[in-house]
Hints:
It comes from Hucho hucho. One of its GO terms (cellular component) is cytoplasm. By secondary structure, the protein is of the alpha/beta class. The chain has 2 domains: 39-338, Indigoidine synthase domain (Indigoidine synthase fold, 3-Layer(aba) Sandwich); 349-711, UDP-N-acetylmuramoyl-L-alanine:D-glutamate ligase (3-Layer(aba) Sandwich), CATH 3.40.1190.20. The chain is 36% helix and 18% strand. The chain has 24 helices and 26 strands. Strands 1, 2, 3, 4, 5, 6, 7, 8, 9, 10 and 11 form an 11-stranded mixed beta sheet that branches. Strands 12, 15, 16, 19, 20, 21, 22, 23, 24, 25 and 26 form an 11-stranded mixed beta sheet that branches. A 4-stranded mixed beta sheet has the order 14-13-17-18. α20 links the parallel β19 and β20 (519-522). α12 crosses α13.
Amino acid sequence: MKLSVSLRYSELLKEVSAQLLQRGISTFHSRLCKNDGLYLVHPAVSEALAENRPVVALESTIITHGMPYPHNLSTAKVVEAIVRTEGATPATVGLLQGRVHVGLSSEELDYLAQSKTSLKVSRRDLPYAISKGFCGGTTVSGTMIAAHRAGIHVFVTGGVGGVHRDGENSMDISADLTELGRTPIAVVSAGVKSILDIGRTLEYLETQGVCVVTFGTSMNFPAFFSPQSGFTSPYHVNNAEEAADLIAGNLSLGLQSGLLLAVPIPKEHAAAGQQIENAIQAALAEANVKGIRGRDLTPFILQKVNELTRGKSLQANIALIHNNARVGSQIACALSKRMHKKTWTPSAPHAKEREKDSDSQSNIVVIGGVNVDFIAKGKTDKLVFGQTNPGSVCQSFGGVGKNLADSLSRMGQRPLFISAIGTDSHSDAVLNYCRHMNTSGVAILKEQRTATYCAVITESGDLSLGLGDMDIHQQITEQYVSQFEEKLSSASIMCVDGNIPVSTINYVCSVAKNHAVPVWYEPTDCDKACKPFLSDSWKALAYTSPNLAELCTMNKALGFPTPAVLPSSLEEVLSCAMALARPLLDHLQCVVVTLGAMGVLLCGEHNAGSVDLQPRRGTRKGRLCAVHYSALAQTAAEMVNVSGAGDSLVGGILAGMFQSRDTHSCVRMGLLAARLSLASPHPVCTTLTTDSVDPNKVQPPQSWPQPNLLWMEE
Length: 714
């Protein structure tokens, strides 16, 4: 989006920049805020995630604080070997020189294992440890944060923290429990550490909305060293496949809470329960006398219990961690297989002929922009220029092309994304965030700035001001894109956004015309909407998704009359949209007019009570119609980010098309995807999946309104 900015906004821009700097958000204009990447993902982990292969996160406090050297190092390496043997990629999380590493090398593991100064890093400790450049082992809480940010869904540990004994008086409650309540990670453990108050811990987990299940046929909730704690789990899963279904369901619902999968220690390794319980009581009494509490209590208790049981508790600890790693890896593999199931069948006649493999990947190409977004949202419905306004500022990754490729990737497709980024501080962050996408077509250009965009919005979500540095999009040239001509000519569909140069759009349309490939044009904004319509290139388009203002721009470029003032009532808006869409339908198959809070209007050839979305061959035969779908209800408080809703809508519609769904279902998928986007800090919701927008599985707050069919004049 591009808006002209007058001088009277200069003070506001200074204030926005100041707030960005104060919040530590990097911009390429400032060396002071240069961010070289606080989260570093190991190449092996990054590659596995990009290819949707199973990855298992592992904590590191067991290395830095849980066991003595060299037992800690050997256990860590054996656990990683078990994960690999089961077919998954291990990603041990740790803090090195103030950076969170997701995946450690052998040398880094050895360094942490021998370090005498490593911190124990939970959520509260991350900012301080990073600011000081410290090293440390991440707790369950700290590891969950890093794993979720990296896109890992399964995390294996020994046992989770909980409510300490006498916690009703001390209020000593582990941050692991609150993290489970707000981070959607499946934590595989041997239950709750036996030094804790297990009953109160389970009650607290229930309050946090955490789904707790025992792995296996028993309903008994394990107590770390013992398969039984005297308490039962609410649920149980019999095997890895059932656990994978549970995780997938949690992700699809978008609950933003984790799962606790409690795995009983194998009976042959379980130490005598009473002996360990007596040792725990003795250790607790000694800790009380010595005044040991807080983060120092658990390591002290474990070491003391190990001494009192003459090593039996340490042996049991190692055995249960090995078993958890085995079970967790099997669950991760089952989850990966579940996500790789075939979700679509090409319906275009030419798509089947051009499929080069038999997997579930779609043959889509997306060409467009990617940028770093800074969203500043005010806490009032009216912003006052020239002074500081209360609000919040967050960073995300957007760009119309990126948003389309992102949403399609999260809904079972794998489009080739063609774009360009610079070699500044943002480029690594962009590629890391987009690791789930096929970014092999993204050019990394020296001495260029990655595109950035800053939006200032009111409390109700209305845009007050937008600034964009998008010059790099002009580097997505015809010469560069032509390198992928084989991919373009064999695509099922090409999606192009208005950020790229006119010459590149003309080239893509030429390839599409020569090879009968449908093109979806996303106009991006009013200034760019006209690009294909400056020549006959627009006649090669099959779909476009403008808003009403952008549709006016398209008509103006073609020399058709447009209203001087856009209408405001729904009836007038629909009438105007139909009239403006009609000239385009002489060549385009469908015009999707996005109407914001009024919903969406599809214009095209009538079929089965709606507009035919599936790519067609030959000329139109049916009558033209328009179908209006109302938007899903959403309050201002629920709207966090407005920058990606339209792109998510298009992504949902396209995903439905490639699953051969009927038009009503395709549009409802788009509306659900848009609703998730509006409620997310990211332009495309990170929990977006096919299941989370499946209208057969997800019901909106109110029942689906009946679409309104309108006939268009020939």
